[in-house]
Amino acid sequence: DEEQELKEKKEKLWKLLCTYLPCDVLSLQKSIVQHVEYTLARRRYKRDKCSFYQATAISVRDRLIERWTDTQQYLSSKDSKRVYYLSLEYLLGRNLQNAMSCLALRNRYAAALEELGYSLEELTEEERDPGLGSGGLGRLASCFLDSLATLNFGAWGYGLRYKFGLFEQRLISKAQAEFPDFWLKEGYPWEVERPDVQYLVRMYGEVEDRVDPETGEVKVAWKGGEDVLAEGFDIPVPGFHTLNTNNLRLWTSKASCEFDLGSFNDGQYYAAIEEKERSEPLTSVLYPCDNNAPGKELRLRQQYFFVSATLQDILRRYKKSPSHGLLDLPNKVAIQLNETHPAIAIPELMRLLLDDENLCWQDAWHIVHNTCAYTNHTVMPEALEIWPLPLVEQILPRHLRIIYEINHQFLSEVRRRWPGDPQRVARMSIIEESEPKMVKMAHLAIIGCHKVNGVAQVHTGLLCKSLFRDFYEMWPEKFVNITNGVNHRRWMLQANPAMSAVISKWLGTHDWVHDLGRLERLKELSSNPEFQRDWQEMKRYNKRKLAEFIERTCDVDVDADAMFDVHVKRIHEYKRQFMNILGVAYRYLRILSLLAEEKFDELRQVVPKVVIFAGKAAPNYSVAKDVIKLIIAIADTINSDTRIGGLLKVVFIPNYNVSVAEVIIPGSDLSQHISTAGFEASGTSNMKFCMNGSLLLGSRDGANLEIEQSVGRANIFMFGANTKEVRTLQTTMQYRKPQLDGRLAHVTQEIRSGRFGPTSFDSLVDSLLPENDRYMVGHDFGSYLEALEVSDAAFRKPEEWTAKTIVSCASMSRFSSDRCIREYAEKIWNVEPHQFRPPNKNTSSS
Ligand code: F58
Question: Which UniProt keywords apply (predicted)?
Answer without folding.
Answer: Allosteric enzyme, Carbohydrate metabolism, Glycosyltransferase, Pyridoxal phosphate, Transferase
